[in-house]
């Protein structure tokens, strides 16, 4: 072995290779490449880059980062994370998960599913559908519609409206109101009351009673009878007749006349006069006097005396005796 010293450095040539020792480190030059061995690791420097080979893998250090090449793929390790670049895509492996960065998005593949994280949100793609998980909720996007699954319920957001599908029923939430569509009918639930809209009419169901609101009037149907409430008064329509109940009294309006039934007696009010019909006889009360009409004759009862008017003649009955007044004279008939 040819041995010499140059500038205090021990230099020798072995098999034509220039070899020297500096500070106890074996250093050689092959084809102009500086090559050294440290602790049994072959290290060389190319264009100022420290390069070594470990177990046949070419490894170098750039700016303190360990970089190696395996099968032509550039691989490096940063803070113990294996990082490589394939076709310009930065790829790393963490805990056996393949992870890469594309366009600043952190992307990995788990069990063949492409998974990435954007702004801390876990995002993956399955069968071309964008899927992510937010706060443990599975979320995906289909045709630009945000879709997620919560407790097995399919939930999506369209134009900011929360929409989900349960058992094939389209359900959404607007302003905290649960809204769904069944057979094209918009149905929602407010305070546990089922509410829907049919042809623009608000309809709800309470305890199985169909209730709707038309022009702000509460309307429901019970046993096929249309029933509504106006100003707290229960109002229904039977056979086209408006019928309402006030304080338990059945009240209806026929041809604009207020008609009610009290204890089975038909009572109506005309021009403020209380009028009723008993056994087909028209009966009214004027100033507290009971007045009825029989066969067109006006009959009233005053202090228990039956009084009627026939052809303008006042006739009354006292103790079964017919008494009339003609021109102010009292006369007893039948005597």
From TrEMBL:
Superkingdom of origin: Eukaryota
Protein name per its UniProtKB record: Uncharacterized protein
Organism: Oncorhynchus kisutch
């Amino acid at each position: 072995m040819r041995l010499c010293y140059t500038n205090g450095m021990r230099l020798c040539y072995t098999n034509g290779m220039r070899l020297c020792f500096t500070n106890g480190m074996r250093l050689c030059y092959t084809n102009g490449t500086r090559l050294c061995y440290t602790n049994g690791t072959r290290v060389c420097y190319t264009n100022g880059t420290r390069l070594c080979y470990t177990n046949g893998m070419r490894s170098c250090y750039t700016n303190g980062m360990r970089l190696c090449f395996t099968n032509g793929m550039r691989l490096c390790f940063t803070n113990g994370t294996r990082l490589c670049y394939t076709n310009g895509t930065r790829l790393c492996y963490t805990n056996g998960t393949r992870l890469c960065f594309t366009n600043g998005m952190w992307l990995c593949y788990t069990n063949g599913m492409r998974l990435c994280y954007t702004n801390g949100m876990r995002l993956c793609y399955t069968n071309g559908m964008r899927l992510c998980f937010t706060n443990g909720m599975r979320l995906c996007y289909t045709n630009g519609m945000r879709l997620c699954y919560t407790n097995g319920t399919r939930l999506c957001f369209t134009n900011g409206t929360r929409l989900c599908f349960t058992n094939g029923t389209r359900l959404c939430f607007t302003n905290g109101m649960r809204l769904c569509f069944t057979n094209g009918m918009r149905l929602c639930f407010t305070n546990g009351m089922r509410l829907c809209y049919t042809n623009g009419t608000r309809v709800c169901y309470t305890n199985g009673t169909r209730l709707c609101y038309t022009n702000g009037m509460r309307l429901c149907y019970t046993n096929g009878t249309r029933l509504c409430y106006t100003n707290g008064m229960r109002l229904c329509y039977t056979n086209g007749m408006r019928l309402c109940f006030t304080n338990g009294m059945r009240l209806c309006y026929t041809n604009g006349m207020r008609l009610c039934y009290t204890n089975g007696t038909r009572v109506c009010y005309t021009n403020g006069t209380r009028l009723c019909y008993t056994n087909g006889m028209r009966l009214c009360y004027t100033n507290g006097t009971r007045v009825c009409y029989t066969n067109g004759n006006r009959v009233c009862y005053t202090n228990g005396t039956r009084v009627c008017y026939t052809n303008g003649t006042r006739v009354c009955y006292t103790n079964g005796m017919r008494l009339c007044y003609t021109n102010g004279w009292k006369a007893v008939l039948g005597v």
